[in-house]
Design goal:
- The mean pLDDT is 96.
- Strands 5-4-3-10-9-8-7-6 form an 8-stranded parallel β-sheet. Strands 1-2 form a two-stranded antiparallel ribbon.
- It starts with a strand and ends in a 10-residue tail after the last helix.
- The protein has 12 helices and 10 strands.
- The chain has a single domain (4-290), classed as Aldolase class I (TIM Barrel, Alpha-Beta Barrel), CATH 3.20.20.70.
- The protein has 300 residues and is α/β, with parallel strands linked by helices.
Length: 300
């Protein structure tokens, strides 16, 4: 398995899983809420907090309909453009967020949705780029981001293996080998039967790149299974309150729930142990009392 370095974290088979709290748009366009998300993420032991960098005018038309899940959790009379417009952060806001991330010593990442936003994030000095599932087929955009020479994490929701292959080859052709691919199911919330976690192994091994899992399921079982199967990056949506208005809060974990996720991942890593079969120290202590030995039935 390959290795990449994001900020101070080395991500490979020899190091703990890199855990990303996807704050996304769960700040509701409010800088103070974004700062609080950073602080809470650090408190519970998250490695990285990720946002989304966009201008509504650049990513969607004013007539674009909402996705089905968005209609279920937001005002159906509001257009997707109107919804996204309220969820924007200003470019100045990002300076404040990054300053807080540095203060808290937590890695900042954000997903750009066009070249202008990618250029802006690069100028801010981001350690890596996270590409959303919808952009994995936008090869010119991938090439543009790849040329920054920074690590790229690709989400693969909705993609075929052929599309993933083409994306990876595009990034490599731009001279960038620092990649990780995340198995992802684009549905909010998703279901266990749609997780298809083993696909991350197929993608990672066939393309010789690091792999992980981006989860949209309300429970955490799929994340633990992914770690057991070798995922070195886990990403999940993070909110201060699942009852807040907005498209992603209900498909996110709150602070306590995310802490439970982290605890479960770390316990899974401990339980995996090593490939070497040998008795543990506690087993050795029990050997005398649990194994049979030769004894005399009568005195001699």
């Amino acid at each position: 398995m390959k290795s990449i370095k994001i900020d101070k974290a080395l991500i490979n088979a020899e190091h703990p899983c890199f855990i990303i709290a996807e704050a996304g748009v769960n700040h509701n366009g409010n800088l103070e809420m974004a700062i609080e998300l950073v602080r809470k993420a650090k408190e519970i032991g998250v490695d990285c907090i990720k946002f989304q960098t966009f201008k509504a005018e650049s990513v969607i038309t004013k007539e674009a309909p909402k996705a089905k899940y968005q209609l279920e959790v937001t005002d159906p009379g509001e257009s997707q453009f109107e919804m996204l417009k309220k969820l924007e952060l200003t470019y100045e806001d990002y300076n404040s967020i990054i300053k807080e991330c540095k203060k808290q010593q937590i890695t900042f990442l954000s997903t750009p949705y066009n070249e202008e936003d990618a250029d802006f994030l690069n100028e801010l000095g981001v350690a890596a780029f996270k590409i959303a599932s919808g952009q994995i087929v936008e090869l010119a955009f991938l090439e543009h981001v790849a040329k920054f020479g920074k690590p790229i994490i690709l989400s693969s929701g909705m993609a075929t293996l052929a599309e993933v292959y083409e994306a990876v080859m595009t990034i490599r052709a731009a001279g960038n080998e620092q990649m990780a691919i995340l198995q992802c199911t684009t549905n909010y919330p998703s279901q266990n039967e749609d997780a298809n976690i083993r696909a991350m192994i197929s993608m990672g091994e066939s393309l010789d790149i690091l792999y992980g899992y981006s989860d949209h399921i309300e429970e955490n079982y799929a994340c633990y299974a992914a770690v057991a199967l070798g995922a070195k990056i886990i990403e999940k949506h993070f909110t201060l309150d699942r009852n807040l208005p907005g498209p992603d809060h209900k498909a996110s974990l709150n602070v306590q729930e995310f802490k439970s996720l982290i605890d479960g991942i770390r316990k899974t890593e401990i339980a995996l142990g090593s490939p070497i079969k040998k008795p543990s120290l506690r087993e050795i202590e029990n050997t005398e009392g649990m194994r049979r030995s030769i004894v005399l039935k009568s005195s001699i």
